[in-house]
């Protein structure tokens, strides 16, 4: 992988730099921005019943929020303490008391009146629960009875009718590994994880382009790179501590470029609370915004490469790192011919950017000696997500931005546990340390001591849809076992998802709290199992950050849910109930034993067995993967991949729509108003030009609709690329199409074409053929969106 070791945290400059200030007005008074001090005080008040425990979590545990890898209050990138409102908001999940019995056992319709935010505030799950068909409330059940009920169902069905899913809710590598092993022990390959709906295209694309499934570089490489590009990523909102890295990069002279349809205020300027200068006056983060159309990134990148090849024709070596390409890259001529055939007019129309703007960015990269490309769901959540990422890899390979300091490809994760999920094998296409194919299968069979099922497992979306198959079908989903997750609020078409969940015989929710999916009916029973948090897990646990840092998070002294169990142990106890004669094959004495086995099963993780104390950490693959341009591909070279331009046609008056995040952590909402733009959850962000064209004023009642759903909201005029709309997630999911997956990585499509109208117009004509005609135009003219 890489030879160079990470050199540890660096210090921030001590002197201020007024050139980077957003405003001379202290604390951003009068501006729309997060109020960090107010938020901190609120969190302290929320946790006042367990404040000492909360402080121990913050100072001893590894952050259970984003995947930056903050251990205690420190990380491996910058010296000094780091703390953000995302982590503070999640704190209450670990310190709150149990749900009161009269609430927990209330009539199910009483609970269904609550949204997920209200359900979350009820408290922790105290003991196992069951709600059988026809019952109006959950009743208490013993652990033995719960596991016996689940085990009896597993033995009665075909293993293909069983599916597991693990979210990234503070779940440790140990739990992912145990689940992956137990699933295969029980005969099923239907096991998936939260990366399926965020970064699965990143892994797929990086594997085919450069042979890796994770970030090639470290966060330290941001600091001092010539250009830091955020592509479809709003790190300031989703990974707030990263703003400190951006601040440090700016102080080193790095240019920060954001490529996104919406000029996200969080990336324009940010008040970093733990840097006095920034806390007072703010920091200008982005040097420029390139506001592409939704789905227009491939066209934009074709344009960049087309301009490079034109530069090369005029002056060889002016745009392409020819030495790097010759030594380390395949497919140059095929890509060059493919890109040269692209039509400039089509690239401009599809990207939404002028030829001049595309050339400007192309020349900036051509002049740069180093660059780091960071991306997130703005690139991945498309039906062509893998091609999006392959295009990013093409840019990096052509310029040699790989395998050295201040260069790299970084799919920035949003959850602290999710990088390790596939690496531990909790994925239908993966096994610990490899893929579900070839020599990796017998290798893992030798390590585990039992044969693996050889059929291909399903991604979670398909598993859910399989619940609607006829009862006799071999893949009819009859038992769905989910650790965390709320599919009603994370998947497209919530009504369809609810129907799928309610068509399963037995649904098991292993979790720390209730959510709206837990309350859905089942054909036979819903079973709820109370899990420990990562801070309660005996023997501690590990998590893997975006930059491949494997951190040890110790067990932290504090109050406990008396009947909650470690997630990894629940899986092994279930396996023992199903097959007691072979149970020893999947039993672990303790968390140390799991880590010892991980080190054998996943060779990159050799070192995890030595993590035992607070602060212990190692980085698998070292500072840079593909160091010196040598990739872990069969021939050691990276692959340039010609990518086709997706069709994005739409008729006049129709829009591309996508979803964005506000004051939330993934699907968990923490406020009704976005602190960066003052928008409400039902606001639809529309450009001033489009609003003028269709006669909409700021604050008008509007309707966005298509054949999949209708969204009633308010117009919020904002700096978004014309022809594009931004809605909040998950509220906007009602407009999304179910069953539309990216063919290579299986991620659902989270972008759609819609009609936007004044509410009065929509309601005036909704009983005529007007709406149907508008939808028909949309279906005819905008295939695939």
Automatic annotation (TrEMBL):
Keyword flag Metal-binding: yes
InterPro entries noted in UniProt: Asp_de-COase-like_dom_sf, MoPterin_dinucl-bd_dom, Mopterin_OxRdtase, Mopterin_OxRdtse_a_bac, Prok_molybdopt-oxidoreductase
Transmembrane regions listed in the UniProt entry: none
Domain annotation Molybdopterin dinucleotide-binding: ranges: 657-752
Superkingdom of the organism of origin: Bacteria
All residue ranges annotated as the Molybdopterin oxidoreductase domain in the record: 124-576
Gene3D superfamilies: 2.40.40.20, 3.40.50.740, Dimethylsulfoxide Reductase, domain 2
A Pfam family annotated for this UniProt entry: Molydop_binding
Keywords: Iron, Iron-sulfur, Metal-binding
Keyword Manganese attached: no
Name of this chain's protein: FdhF/YdeP family oxidoreductase
